[in-house]
Design brief:
This is Sodium-dependent transporter. The chain has 471 residues and is mainly α. It is built from 18 helices and no strands. The relative contact order is 0.19. The structure holds 4-fluoro-L-phenylalanine (PFF). The site of 4-fluoro-L-phenylalanine has 16 residues, from α1, α2, α5, α10 and α14.
Length: 471
């Protein structure tokens, strides 16, 4: 095996650019393209967007840097990296369980993320079929009514066989790249798909600039109305920032472990967070002009991506082609994230049990496939199966919603909270300072954020996530 970025014969990124692209690939995903516009729509636009940006800078970025520095110091799977930092700081190695929780979260998120990836595959297929039947000119689905187009989504999610098969296909594609290793597979997918993703995103945004209602979109996304900044809106924004930056699941610890010592983690974390935020904003600038131009309202939830947008593509010229390009772009972004999610438990199994990468990633795939199929069926035949209903916050939730809530509102915030406490208060200060690549006032400010602001803000999210009646 060749000598890699991490300076050892262990597999790792072949260059700093490869790491940056892979980390951006991990961060940019359904969270930016589906969740961000849906949350902005559901939470009143500008106020949410402004607060979201603030959260990325003040809470997300410090935790992102904390995660990557633990990984780079440990040069191992996430729990082992936490253990090494704890050991070198003379503290209890029980801190490794923060990362064990992250491994669990990544596995659960992977399971339901691939179900959504499967939905995207379904829409890619639907747009390809439409392109062949109705041609490039005119809107998409020209021989269907609006009601028929909107009915595609409920029909798809209640067809458990199709969604389960597509879930397994998406998982299989993810396995294909993860099984090939860090430099041979994971970084290749980012190296080719991320540039293609950016071209598509910018292209569709430019289309929206000329063909869509851009002025209305800019007003909607960037007009700050302070009265709209309520408690739930702020919490939605913090949660979104974390999900979008892939934090709290030890994902960035895992990717950080393949980074060489010569890389400045402060600078690269800044690049990753800026790119992720830019993509979320561009996604808003790409989606809403098309929605507004079709005279539709920006409702929230999954309906925005899977019902409102296909309807909007019906109304605009070249809708079949733009729609197809759009869903391919979403598929690319989802794949670079699912690859990151699979790598977290895979790296752990390799480190812990000394299995080969092929066996480890295969095992993750089998278990994530089993849980994923249960999630896929939960919007159809298993809709009445509420696995965590004994706990009030999961009441009425099927497997997919329960897994999303369990990770997004409980295990991911706990992981991020404990990570900031670990880096801010437990780990040896000199060790942390030598890894973070920051100097002067920036360093002092980062320490303040990690020690105080991040733990307090994260504890608040957790409290409100578990006890919604608290606000
Ligand atoms: N950040 C990804 C998104 O916005 O879709 C989701 C994600 C990927 C979360 C990888 C966690 C992770 F480790």
């Amino acid at each position: 095996m060749a000598l890699t970025q991490s300076g050892s014969t262990r597999d790792g990124w072949s260059s700093r650019t490869a790491f940056i692209l892979a980390a951006i690939g991990s961060a940019v995903g359904l969270g930016n393209l589906v969740r961000f516009p849906a949350e902005a729509g559901a939470n009143g636009g500008g106020a949410f967007v402004m607060f979201y940006i603030l959260c990325v800078i003040l809470i997300g970025l410090p935790v992102l840097l904390s995660e990557t520095l633990i990984g780079r110091h440990g040069q191992a799977a996430a729990p082992e990296s936490f253990r090494k930092v704890a050991e070198h700081s003379g503290k209890s190695t029980a801190w490794e369980h923060v990362a064990s929780l992250g491994v669990f979260s990544a596995f659960v998120v992977l399971s339901f993320y691939c179900v959504l990836g499967g939905w995207v595959l379904y829409y890619i297929g639907t747009f390809v079929g439409d392109l062949f039947s109705t041609g490039v000119v005119g809107g998409a689905f020209s021989d269907s009514t609006v009601a028929e187009v909107e009915a595609l989504f409920p029909a798809m999610i209640s067809d458990g066989i199709t969604t389960s098969i597509l879930d397994l296909v998406f998982l299989g594609i993810t396995l294909f790249f993860v099984a090939r290793g860090v430099s041979g597979g994971i970084e290749k997918v980012a190296l080719y798909l991320m540039p293609a993703f950016f071209v598509l995103l910018v292209g569709i945004t430019i289309y929206g600039m000329f063909g869509g209602a851009m002025g209305q979109t800019v007003d909607y996304l960037f007009t700050f109305e302070p009265e709209k900044l309520t408690g739930p809106v702020m919490l939605a924004a913090v949660g979104q920032a974390f999900f979008s930056l892939s934090l709290g699941v030890a994902g960035m610890v895992t990717y950080g472990a393949y980074v060489g010592r010569n890389v400045n983690l402060g600078v690269t974390s800044g690049i990753i967070a800026s790119a992720d935020t830019m993509v979320a904003l561009l996604a808003g600038l790409c989606i809403f002009p098309i929605v507004f131009a079709a005279g539709l309202s920006p409702n929230g939830g999954l309906g925005l991506m899977f019902q409102t947008l296909p309807h909007a593509f019906q109304e605009i010229p070249g809708g079949s082609l733009i729609g197809l390009a759009f869903f391919i772009m979403v598929g690319f972004a989802a794949l670079t994230s699912s690859v990151a999610l699979m790598e977290v438990p895979t790296a752990w199994i390799i480190d812990r049990f000394r299995f080969t990468r092929a066996v480890a990633s295969g095992m993750v795939t089998v278990f994530a496939g089993a849980l994923g199929v249960l999630c896929a069926l939960s919007t159809g035949v298993l809709a009445g199966f509420h696995p965590l209903a004994f706990f009030p916050m999961f009441e009425g939730m099927g497997m997919l919603d329960a897994m999303d809530t369990l990770t997004g509102k409980i295990t991911m915030p706990i992981g991020a909270l404990l990570t900031s406490i670990f880096v801010g208060w437990i780990a040896n200060k000199r060790l942390v300072d030598s890894e973070n690549g920051l100097g002067g006032a920036l360093h002092v400010f980062w320490r303040f954020l990690v020690c105080w602001l991040c733990p307090i803000a994260l504890a608040a999210i957790l409290l409100v996530g578990v006890f919604p009646s608290f606000i």
